[in-house]
């Protein structure tokens, strides 16, 4: 990864995968699940206010490549590095998306819904380990009933919908969101010991060491097929300070990388 500022002496080593660079879809399905976060829908809507969207239910039309679709979701965050950028969890999809709701010309008919988000209390299984900052093995069920293992790292509790967790995966290093304790209870989530999966666990800070923050840095990345992508480092993960969220200009997904210094 090359950057316009100090990022030229850093490299990206966390969860690099060709599937990310090839993905050009707006929404991707990882595993369809019952959302559990909604109250009963209401047909009425209110005019949206950019300063009053956090924690609110929205719907809008999305126009791209001649296709028109309608999406409903929950606004989770508004980024301090770019106040136009909102992080949204859309119904029926497991990724968290970064959308400039009031600037992106693909978004139209944005409405603020009156339905409320139901934030149920987390039911932590007795004797369970802490999840945040841990490498895990997550089982996903395919259409035929076969289960597929995905290794990843739990990044944090999600905002607003705090019974959910942010997580990313070795096979697909973008930001996902799941109710992980449900999977833990069902035997579909296993916390990995550090010795078993060190490459998924970035090195922690040494005592007294304050890592240089890369938030706000403009980055440039050239894919294997020569495609140049530019973006912005938008967030540093508190549980793992070398791990950052990157929002590329040509993609609504939030990419998750470990950025380590090379010199």
Automatic annotation (TrEMBL):
Gene Ontology biological process terms in this record: gamete generation
Gene3D superfamilies in alphabetical order: Spindlin/Ssty
Known InterPro entries for this protein? Answer: SPIN/Ssty, SPIN/Ssty_sf
**Sequence intervals crossing the membrane:** none
Q: Which family does it belong to?
A: Belongs to the SPIN/STSY family.
Q: PANTHER family from the entry?
A: SPINDLIN
Q: Give the protein name, as stated in the record.
A: Zmp:0000000521
Native source species: Gasterosteus aculeatus aculeatus (three-spined stickleback)
| Record lineage | Eukaryota, Metazoa, Chordata, Craniata, Vertebrata
């Amino acid at each position: 990864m090359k950057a316009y500022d100090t990022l030229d002496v850093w490299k990206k080593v966390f969860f690099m995968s060709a599937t990310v660079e090839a993905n050009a879809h707006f929404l991707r399905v990882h595993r369809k699940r019952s959302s559990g976060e909604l109250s009963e829908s209401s047909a009425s809507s209110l005019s949206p206010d950019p300063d009053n969207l956090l924690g609110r239910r929205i719907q809008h039309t999305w126009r791209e490549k001649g296709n028109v679709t309608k999406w409903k979701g929950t606004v989770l965050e508004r980024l301090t590095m770019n106040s136009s950028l909102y992080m949204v969890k859309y119904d029926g999809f497991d990724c968290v998306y970064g959308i400039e709701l009031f600037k992106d010309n693909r978004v139209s008919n944005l409405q603020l819904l009156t339905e409320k988000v139901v934030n149920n209390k987390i039911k932590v299984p007795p004797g369970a380990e802490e999840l945040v900052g841990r490498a895990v093995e997550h089982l996903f069920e395919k259409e035929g009933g076969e289960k597929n293992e995905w290794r990843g790292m739990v990044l944090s509790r999600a905002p607003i919908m705090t019974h959910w967790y942010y997580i990313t995966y070795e096979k697909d290093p973008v930001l996902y969101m799941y109710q992980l304790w449900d999977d833990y209870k069902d035997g579909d989530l296993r916390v990995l010991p550090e010795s078993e999966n060190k490459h998924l666990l970035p090195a922690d800070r040494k005592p007294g060491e304050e890592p240089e923050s890369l938030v706000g840095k403009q980055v440039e990345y050239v894919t294997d097929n020569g495609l140049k992508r530019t973006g912005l480092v938008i967030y540093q993960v508190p549980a793992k300070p070398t791990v950052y969220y990157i929002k590329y200009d040509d993609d609504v997904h939030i990419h998750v990388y470990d950025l380590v210094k090379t010199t």
